[in-house]
Amino acid sequence: MSESNHTGPLRAEELVVLVDHRERRYLVQLTPGKRYHTHNGYIDLDDVVGLEEGSWLVTSGGNRILALRPLLSDIVLEMPRSGQVVYPKDLGAILIYGDIFPGASVVEAGLGSGALTMTLMRAVGERGRVVSYEVRQQTAEKTLGNVHLSMPNIDNLTIRMADVYEGVQEREVDRIVLDVPEPWRVAPSALEALVPGGLFLAFLPTALQVHELVNALRNTGRFRLVETQEVLTRSWHVTRSSLRPDHRMVAHTGFLVRARKTSARPHVDLDSERDESLPEAEFLRPAHSQQEVNKWTEP
Ligand SMILES: C[S@@+](CC[C@H](N)C(=O)[O-])C[C@H]1O[C@@H](n2cnc3c(N)ncnc32)[C@H](O)[C@@H]1O
Fold this sequence. Notes:
alpha/beta; Vcp-like ATPase, Chain A, domain 2; Rossmann fold; 2 domains; seven-stranded mixed β-sheet; four-stranded antiparallel β-sheet; 7 helices; 15 strands; elongated; binds S-adenosylmethionine
């Protein structure tokens, strides 16, 4: 994932974003000999190769077209998708909230369209590694093609065709980032996989899933500092004569739940250390044993 991919004149075979006169964006690969057809004429993609980013072209029909390297958010929003992607507003938050750092070892599930994978790859850099679990072969093949198109030189991404609920196979993992329907099923094996102090993060669309996950994390007795966030952003319409929020916004997408792996807590008798954040007995599912209930409720 060399930084040089992001500089210099536009090269044959790389991805560009073409922006039309209405600021509509089109993600296009600069395939030699091909034409790109717009609503008003075409451009020869060979004419784009060798231009500096930010150059203008004119279509055969007389419309202006701007050529740029795509931002990661352009790729995420414009690439062909196999299912729901994580939106840029959440991707940014995941990097900070999930404390993804250069050189980190990250396990992710599921791969999906690869939006989160590409974001993680960028953040861990060349010294880090990402292992992404996926159960659908077709999804994995298509997504891997997309990822390599925008990040041609990476060799530190592994796609693991496996059900993450059956266990995380990696060890000494710094961060586990999940976008699967039942992340609580990963909590026990995440404890095996994570380094001491490692971070578990899940992206969840519904509050019911959040509740299930938070209870499960706390019930392990080893995940602490369990926190939940939701990210809302609102774009604005700014012109000479108007300054207001846009009428439409991407409102709810999902919640972020994170927790840190700790060692087992020592037993103390002090009342002052009784933990208000632990779930009350009535929040525990009936399936929990009386022993587990006692663990949280006994003084
Ligand atoms: C919502 S999509 C992930 C989207 C992805 N985060 C992105 O940004 O494009 C969920 C993906 O998880 C996969 N998946 C679901 N359950 C899984 C499991 N138990 N193990 C591995 N992958 C799973 C699905 O096949 C699907 O591709």
